[in-house]
Here is the input.
Amino acid sequence: MKKISFFWLVSILMLLPICFVSCSDDDEESVGSASNLIGLWDPVHAEGYEIFDGKKDTWNENINAESEGSDYARVEFFEDGTCTRYIYYKGSWVVDDDGEGVYQVKGNKLYIVSVGDADEDDSSTIVKLTSNQLIIERRDIWKNGDEVEEYYEKITSRKIR
Here is the structure.
């Protein structure tokens, strides 16, 4: 009887490491080929929401980035890991202030660090990446005392070159 109990105990102990192996929430799933990111991207659609002072503001709109004062910019990704952000200003596309930076793709995450603001990085989740379409999501949550502010946006862009 003791041999049978010892056998079961050893069997359970051998199976414990297998039972505790799990998938991490931080696993980064690849979405499309990172090489598809190389090129100039023009935002064409945005949807999202912002919760501020307990009020929720939502939007779902087609974008015309080629208009003065647009909140959206074109972004060009280069093979060397650098990128440039352009805004439409006085009838032409110009490099945005702090618009040059570096980027990195890790799984389904896109990290952009602006050269002019090296302490702050912008990370997005790549939802879809093909040779002509890029869909990214951004989500930020801030706590200020008892108040919680939240921002979410999903941007669809098309490759123009």
User: Anything to note?
Assistant: Strands lie at 39-52, 55-62, 74-77, 82-89, 92-106, 109-114, 121-129, 133-144, 147-159. Helices lie at 2-19. The mean pLDDT is 80.
